[in-house]
Amino acid sequence: MSGAVAQAGQEARLTGTGIHKSFGALPVLNGIDFSLTSNEAVGIIGPNGAGKSTLLGVLVAPPVSRRARSSSTAMT
């Protein structure tokens, strides 16, 4: 999803930039970028072990160095 941007004319409601996650020396997510707008449905697909659940886990349970921004509130 690298390089994703909001659709023309719509403000991004949730944006993630440069998301990284490792388990020890094993990198699982490496520079994930995304941007979601209101009323947008997105699917995350990939093979087993690709990091789909890890990405969702990072978004809902912030690790120490997380930065996310919604259009109304900044979260760190």
Automatic annotation (TrEMBL):
Taxonomy, superkingdom: Bacteria
Protein keywords: ATP-binding, Nucleotide-binding, Transport
All copies of domain ABC transporter, residue ranges: 29-60
InterPro entries in the record: ABC_AA/LPS_Transport, ABC_transporter-like_ATP-bd, P-loop_NTPase
Coiled coil: none
One Gene Ontology molecular-function label: ATP binding
UniProt-listed Pfam families: ABC_tran
Stored PANTHER family: CONSERVED COMPONENT OF ABC TRANSPORTER FOR NATURAL AMINO ACIDS-RELATED
Protein name: ATP-binding cassette domain-containing protein
Native source organism of the sequence: Sulfitobacter porphyrae
